[in-house]
Amino acid sequence: MFTSGKELLRVCRENKMSISQVAIQREMENYGTSLETIFERNKVILQVMKDSAIKGTQESVKSVSGIIGGDAKKMYDYANSGNTLLDSKMLKLMSMGLSTSEVNASMGKIVAAPTAGAAGIIPAVLTSVQLDKGFSDLQIIRALMTIGAIGSIIMRNASVSGAVGGCQAETGSASAMAAAALVELMGGSPQQALDAASFALIHVMGLVCDPIAGLVEYPCLFRNSSGSVNAYISAEMALAGITSLVPFDQVVKAMREVGDEMSTNLKETALGGVAMSAKGQEIQEKIFGSNCGKI
Ligand code: SF4
């Protein structure tokens, strides 16, 4: 939809529009979609996101493999304990990031935005900010359009896939997309939204993709939790007036180049990182047998 952050900022500036307004306008022009249809479609998407972010906080959701499960509920209950390091809002955000990962691994319904592996970050961030600030569904749907615009630029110039660019590309991109949306929801400018997206990518540049047994479960769920926090802190930095020295487009290019230099062992092959730890190997053998992956 957009070729670069530079182009997106130019269109926003020339038309005095927010990123979501520009994204909605493009959608209507390019695909002939009515405003009503855009909102109706995104309403369905948003509801699935919210349900997946909440489910694991209320009940213990186990993965089909048995590797993960119940951590979102533990985190949520801990958030309500009254004896925590961070405030409960941040901890509930973390629990919602865990929740969608657990729902995904239990074969439940999720929105794979930008991917199934990183599907917890955007729902956690949007659900959290809506509960906290009282934004309407309409405002959150506009935020989804901002999320789509940032994602489309990353996909065009790098990747959102762990198999192509490592976890930096997957959970990093989800955090960047969510961070930009948070900035816009809080009244920040399009430039601030792109700065927040840059911070989110920089925070995890070089992060490898190393799922145990090749299943999108562990360490994926933790990265959805920390990725949700990454979106928030990146947005806060931009809203505080901190600017990104390196423009968004150059950060995306750097992420792509880092991904290109990464060994294939560190790109969703389960041949590196925690997947190759003794415990990771033990779990893999238990699930798939001792000859798994051996020629
Ligand atoms: S570790 Fe790999 S599979 Fe898991 S969330 Fe990150 S990119 Fe996706």
Question: What attributes characterize this protein structure?
Answer:
295 residues, mainly alpha, 2-methylcitrate dehydratase PrpD, 0% strand, globular, binds iron/sulfur cluster
Helix content: 55-70%
Structural class estimated from helices and strands: mainly alpha
Q: Count of DSSP E strands?
A: 0
What's the CATH C level? Mainly Alpha
Query: Number of domains in the coordinates?
Result: 1
Q: What is the CATH architecture annotation?
A: Orthogonal Bundle
Overall average pLDDT: 96
How much of the polypeptide forms β-strand, as a percent range?
Answer: under 5%
Provide a descriptive summary of the structure in words:
By secondary structure, this protein is an all-alpha fold. The protein has a single domain, classed as 2-methylcitrate dehydratase PrpD (Orthogonal Bundle). It is built from 13 helices and no strands. The longest helix has 24 residues, at 35-58. The model has no long low-confidence stretch (mean pLDDT 96).
Short description:
It is built from 13 helices and no strands. It has helices at 5-15, 19-31, 35-58, 71-79, 88-105, 121-133, 137-157, 162-165, 167-185, 190-203, 220-239, 248-261, 278-288. The mean pLDDT is 96.
